Amino acid sequence: MLDLSRYDDVLALLRDHASASPDVRLAIVGGSAATGRYDDHSDLDAELWVDGPPDATYDELHGLLAEQLHVDHVWEVLRERWPDGTRQLFAHLQPDPGDLSRPTRIIDLAIHPLPSAGTVVIDPRRHGTPIVLHDPDGLLRLAPEDEAPHEAARATTVAQIAARRGTAEWLVRRALARGELAEAHAFYLRFTFTPLVELLRIEHCPARHDFGLRYLDTDLPEGYADRLDELLPGPDLGDRATRVFAWTDELLTRLGH
């Protein structure tokens, strides 16, 4: 049974504001609470969709959080992160967020402009089933996203990894040969390990092909996450690179490259 009680004050604030503001058309809780991974260390992922630019609602909620809750500090995500005008912040309701001896209290709040179609489509395969806080007009629709952009993105990813394969190995091996260990580890993670995970996602979890290194224990077949853990950057980086590139080549062959 999902227990969000440690965020009851936040949920009440969001519901009250949404009900009182005609610009707020939809409010949900997503993230780990929607995907079934919620635990004592989870933040609260709250998303709102509004008529018009999100700035006014964002400023209002930013102020309400400061007035009604004990906010220790806030990270405001740069506007450039969201080309559609979405505003996002992370509000920490306790100091020392790295102290996991007590339950986490962090709000990830995103305010989106309502799409021109007038509905908000959320793909449960990618984002789970959200908890609806406010949707008086029934704007939320749970359905698969348009597959064409994802199919194109997957094809581009595979083609790029295949084309970059030789360059990637050269970058890692060169850095190791020169004794540039920090550079070697950075190149390994970026051009060797992460592309392997991308290929595994495309083969085994195509709906979440772009979720990076998260959720590997549930998105990939049993045992794969442990196998990947053994290939994380370590002291025998050259040997690990050999194993990763061999696995990468197998996947590229199966995916048509």
Provide a descriptive summary of the structure in words.
The protein has 257 residues and is an alpha/beta fold. It folds into two domains: 5-142, Beta Polymerase, domain 2, CATH 3.30.460.10; 147-254. The chain contains nine helices and eight strands. The protein has helices at 8-20, 32-35, 55-68, 124-127, 147-177, 181-204, 216-219, 224-229, 237-254, and strands spanning 24-30, 44-50, 73-76, 87-92, 106-113, 120-122, 131-134, 140-142. The chain has a six-stranded mixed β-sheet. The mean pLDDT is 97.
On the 0-100 scale, what is the average pLDDT?
Answer: 97
Strand coverage percent? 15-25%
CATH topology of the largest domain: Beta Polymerase, domain 2
SS element count, helices: 9
- Count of the separate structural domains: 2
Distance N to C terminus: 45 Å
CATH superfamily of the largest domain: Beta Polymerase, domain 2
Number of E strands: 8
Q: From the coordinates shown, what is the CATH architecture of the largest domain?
A: 2-Layer Sandwich
**How does the major sheet shape up?**
6 strands, mixed
Which structural category do the helix and sheet elements fall into?
A: alpha/beta
Q: What general form does the structure show?
A: globular
| SSE pattern, N- to C-terminal | HEHEHEEEEHEEHHHHH
* The CATH top-level class label of the largest domain: Alpha Beta
Percent of residues in helices comes to 40-55%
Radius of gyration: 21 Å
Q: Low-confidence stretches at least 5 residues in length (pLDDT < 50)? A: none
Please state how the strands of the largest beta sheet are arranged side by side. 3-4-5-2-1-7
